[in-house]
Specification:
Dna Ligase, domain 1; four-stranded antiparallel sheet; DNA polymerase, domain 1; MutS, DNA mismatch repair protein, domain I; 15 helices; alpha+beta
């Protein structure tokens, strides 16, 4: 989708059409989640600090956004996608892979299918979608970005190398800013440079990873489209508006995140055995997006859980063990080691006292959340967990009307 959140706002509010619009967090550490194409002319883009976006464009219309509405539109769009292919892999609320393999006789040539899909989305939602078509996932994704705004680009098999070669190495999956600098230092500036390199040289410089990146640069992407990927973890996090060193506020925020993760686990019928604490230091140690050090601690339970109170209690212990000596700007809670909630091994000495009461309480809380939204009820000791921006991530276990 093209500038998804901003486009929804411009569609629903005619007075915003043709004006620079950004959606995201408005706090001092807020970030832009989506920017209209009018805003992009000023250099505004997603993940940019909100204050910087406002500096670049004083006339910018900045909106906090409405995740309920965006999630609803995402579901409508994915329903349309499934009319064109039974195999749809959602990457985020506004992006997906569709597998058209073997459908040519039934649906026609891929480019014609893509144009019909674009027209159908426009007809049903009033929103623009850009389509990239290619024999492999990597190239299709790059082509969809090149087709924006509101376009279609097909890269046939015989033109994959021609398409990839002039692109910067950063376009290859798995190459971030650090890897880009390392590759540039070694003389690899374009995908073509990487694609033509000898495997022996790449292995010497970057190990096995260098060989894999070169294969991607040649368009050799063997990954299949996965319509039903299993979740491996559930997590919640937030960036504070101000640096936080108050232990009580950190513990209260941990409880808020723990309850959210637990509710999502229960909704999906899962429990988790490994609990993770994540925090980012407030003091910058280096330049760039990774300048604030990120730390994690984890613990593994004897029995898997989906109870927010238990998750919070164990993660708070991790916080104590971390012996934080400085303020933090971000804190998060994660659960992994997932298993079916009904398939776990029965405890040797029976269930712990009070566990049935907690189950009844959790069921009641889940019913309230399902009916009135996740923010309808909270424990008195929960803290504030305002996000820096709105995420496009597909959150498993979120109820349809949740505003996350």
């Amino acid at each position: 989708m093209d500038a998804f959140y901003a486009s929804v706002e411009q569609r629903d509010r005619p007075e915003l059409r043709g004006r620079p619009v950004a959606v995201g967090g408005e706090s001092r550490r807020g970030v832009v989640s989506a920017a209209s194409y009018e805003a992009r002319r000023y250099g505004i883009h997603s993940a940019m600090p909100s204050f910087e976006a406002k500096r670049l464009c004083p006339d910018l219309v900045f909106l906090r956004g409405d995740m309920v509405r965006y999630s609803r539109e995402s579901r409508r769009i994915f329903e349309i996608f499934r009319e064109f292919s039974p195999v749809v892999e959602g990457l985020s609320l506004d992006e997906a892979f569709l597998d058209l393999s073997g459908c040519e006789r039934l649906l026609g040539r891929p480019a014609a299918v893509g144009e019909r899909l674009r027209a159908r989305v426009r007809q049903e939602t009033g929103l623009a979608v850009s389509v990239g078509i290619a024999p492999v996932k990597l190239v299709a994704k790059i082509a969809s970005a090149a087709a924006k705004p509101d376009g279609l680009l097909e890269v046939p098999p015989q033109r994959v190398r021609e398409f990839l070669d002039p692109l910067p190495v950063r376009c290859i999956w798995g190459i971030g800013s650090v890897a880009e600098r390392r590759l540039a230092d070694a003389g690899f500036l374009s995908a073509g440079d990487l694609a033509r390199a000898e495997d022996s040289l790449l292995e010497k410089l970057f190990g096995e990873r260098g060989i894999k990146l070169a294969r991607l640069a040649r368009g050799e992407d063997l990954r299949e489209i996965e319509a039903h990927r299993e979740a491996v973890s559930y997590s919640e996090e937030n960036t504070f508006d101000e640096d936080i060193s108050d232990r009580g506020l950190l513990e209260a925020t941990i409880l808020t995140h723990a309850e959210s993760v637990a509710r999502r686990l229960r909704r999906d019928g899962l429990r988790g055995r490994t609990l993770v604490l994540k925090w980012r230091e407030a003091r910058r140690r280096s330049q760039g997006p990774r300048g604030y050090p990120l730390h994690t601690r984890q613990t593994t339970l004897f029995e898997a859980t989906n109870d927010g109170g238990e998750i919070a209690r164990e993660v708070r212990r991790l916080l104590v063990q971390a012996h934080l000596s400085a303020a933090v700007r971000l804190i998060g809670v994660g659960v992994t080691g997932l298993e079916d909630a009904d398939a776990g091994q029965l405890p040797l000495f029976g269930r712990a006292e009070g566990s049935e009461r907690r189950d009844r309480l959790n069921s009641a809380l889940d019913e309230i959340a399902a009916r009135f939204g996740s923010g309808a009820v909270a424990r008195a000791s929960q803290g504030s967990a305002e996000r820096a921006g709105l995420s496009l991530q597909i959150k498993r276990g979120e109820p349809p009307h949740s505003n996350g």
